[in-house]
Amino acid sequence: MDSEQRKSALALIQQALPDLDWTVQAPKVKRLSRDFHWFSPVLKQQLENKQADAVVKPRSEEELRLLVQACVRHQLPLILRGGATGNYGQLVPLRGGILVDMTGFNQVCALGDGVVRAQAGIRLADIETVTRPAGWELRCMPSTYRLASLGGLYGGGFGGIGSINYGPLGAPGNVLSVKVMTMEAEPRILDVPAPQALLLHHAYGSNGIVLEVELALAPAHRWIERLDVFDDFTDALDYANAFARSPGLVKRQLALFAAPIPSYFSHLNGHYQATQHAVISVIAQESEGLCTNLLAKHRGQSAVRQTADEARDANASLMEYCWNHTTLHALKIDPTLTYLQTAFNYNNYRQQIIDMAALFGDEVISHIEFLRDNDGNITASGLQLIRYSTEERLNEIMQIFRNNDVKINNPHVYQIEDGKQGEIKSDVVSVKKCLDPNGLLNPGKLRGWEVRDTLTLDNDPLLLADQ
Amino acid sequence: MDSEQRKSALALIQQALPDLDWTVQAPKVKRLSRDFHWFSPVLKQQLENKQADAVVKPRSEEELRLLVQACVRHQLPLILRGGATGNYGQLVPLRGGILVDMTGFNQVCALGDGVVRAQAGIRLADIETVTRPAGWELRCMPSTYRLASLGGLYGGGFGGIGSINYGPLGAPGNVLSVKVMTMEAEPRILDVPAPQALLLHHAYGSNGIVLEVELALAPAHRWIERLDVFDDFTDALDYANAFARSPGLVKRQLALFAAPIPSYFSHLNGHYQATQHAVISVIAQESEGLCTNLLAKHRGQSAVRQTADEARDANASLMEYCWNHTTLHALKIDPTLTYLQTAFNYNNYRQQIIDMAALFGDEVISHIEFLRDNDGNITASGLQLIRYSTEERLNEIMQIFRNNDVKINNPHVYQIEDGKQGEIKSDVVSVKKCLDPNGLLNPGKLRGWEVRDTLTLDNDPLLLADQ
């Protein structure tokens, strides 16, 4: 469908549904069609001219249903937008269409003991505002939790803060079910329990419209946020690793930043020297007493220390210096930087981290996040900063990591299978075939859809026939 | 000091402290001098004729202080007794003396957010009765939690239920501090923070009199207790292992029992066949939904299912079939059995479990507990049941395990270093030298004390000079 055809389809839809909350001014639509893919110079260039034809912010499921019906009738693409904090252009429409701002769907539907069900457009921090008084908080969330939506985390995210305990969001037990609207002439509403629900996870909204997500929660602790500094990188690594690996030291977040990364933290860097390496930890109050000894043992010094309550009141959480916020703080200071996403081997990540840091020197700067993998192993991921020269060199760097048995989750690609997913998954494509038979949801992102004729597809991947 | 000398010393002490709560009738003293070391036919024989000369149950710290003073003056051994649920003769006096029943010290001293401080003689279950309404429970406890005392767990225990999350009790962060009385002519009271506090852990009360223990707590969940059965042992193993290794499946306890162990559970065995293998799991309510799929995948069936509240009300928790309760249930049915304590390798415990089960056939019956080790790795320990023939064959079996890279924590020895500790630790001996310079506490248990002249001892192992 070319631009002219889309324009006339859009006109017909607007005519049929004039009461929807439309945004059509091109600059505003373009702005809303962006996320944080500009962290990648490669994606920045590739997605520069991509945008929606219009934006709609539904006020109700009924409005969304009418819009879906209309888009199916006129074969216009539909792309979901949450908090727009993605890093891979998850929401950037590749072939125009209507961008649906989901942030009107922002209610907590049900709060149980250790379980919450909320609408996809709610901000993650707003979920915790409801759950925390009951003693619960999110099991894993990105550093963008103040802006990021639940649906965005589910549709395009991975995990983050809390993954040191619960692994990635996709690990069994973290997501319990989703409620989905199909992209059909007569849209259906489906309740999909885990594990099938996970077939819609990290699919960028390309195989169903997630309306609600039911999450298992973590018990809340009184957290202390700390930034500790070290003159020696290996000392900092070993301090963080000792904390990560001690099952009796309760934590929510643990990250290591090689110099000069801490110097990019402009609100904090008065507390230490630019040559120092840092560890940010969020640890339970009852575990903090052990820091003194552990710090002394690894020749570290306390630089910043605050309670999570203080941090929240001041909108100054150290969690907002971790995961991809690190990249953001760095790019604000030095826009020539970009980043990697690497997964070290759980069996020898310590040595790999040291080796890779030594191998690249100043060109690749270690930012290491500690987490559990899907099998419960404690391991480390890198969101290394890269002094960017060319796309060719960037690919070369990634190849060198792979050659050293460090997995690359390439953040410089916009197709789902080229990133974390790693390969075409026929089950994920089967879901799209069932819920979006015309291929209208976020077209161009799911490579498997383009080659669906070569795949063996399941007619009922969500086991709906069993319900 | 021979029996006659002890008798006259005892007479002098009784004369000086007539108001203490004395037990002196030999049969009663003998009964109080027993624990569950009879699980081991070796220890049963070795400790058969060992007992205290008298038992005292102090009503106050002042009474205990007077008793300590008197014992030091007359050089009479003093041995601490908690719930008497130990398995290695921890409390059995090797050289007579006064057995101190600590169960009068049974108060919770302070409950904070995630922290409790309680007296050594309190039963573990009674601590939870206080902490649970505040949303907290014990991080790790033996299956004997209804009888076992806090001081007993600290002085002679390891961990157990909850160790799948927090590792052994001795892992950093689980114990925060202890309050200790010294065994001196003028007894001192010391507050010893972790990590130094751990030098008194698992020392059988041989290097200090622990009066109070401060523990970090775990947030309470609504737990579900399940017993699921499998026709195939590997299916049962893989089910348990999948549960153990999934970071998003929240659990407190996970154990695997090869047939015919489940048939020894006489209150449960109507729910399954004697040929079936069982997995007992204690899982969070919010995680239970995933069992159906996981069970089906591993060809398992639900046999028993109850909430922890129901179990508590009925005094019928499935936790009391795990850890060394398994051994107890088995020995009740077949007194010719005994047991092992093995630590599999975290890197290949699944294969080791299968191999060792195949190697010994019916002679060694797999009872496997899943837990985290001190470095946060998920791994497995065995409390295998043994069809006992001779001590020689028992030692041969243990050697075969060692030859297959499975560590043995020998439960058939009464000296501290021969069991879990594995070697003489000069720091532990240094503590005894400082707090019990006359070697009166539980004499004969700490091998390192006998050879103290050959060790380099620290004059201040608890860093008291820094306080």
Can you offer a commentary on this structure?
- The structure is a homodimer of 467-residue chains.
- By secondary structure, the first copy, chain A, is an alpha+beta fold.
- Chain A is built from 15 helices and 21 strands.
- Chain A has a domain at 223-416: 3-Layer(aba) Sandwich (Vanillyl-alcohol Oxidase, Chain A, domain 3), CATH 3.40.462.10.
- Helix content of chain A is 29%, strand content 22%.
- An eight-stranded antiparallel beta sheet of chain A has the order 14-11-13-12-18-19-16-21. In chain A, strands 5, 6, 7, 8, 9 and 10 form a six-stranded antiparallel beta sheet that branches. Chain A has a four-stranded mixed beta sheet with strand order 1-2-4-3.
- In chain A, a hairpin with a 5-residue loop joins strand 18 (367-372) and strand 19 (378-382).
- In chain A, helix 1 packs across helix 4 (61-74).
- The longest helix of chain A has 14 residues, at 3-16.
- Chains A and B meet through strand 10 of A and strand 10 of B.
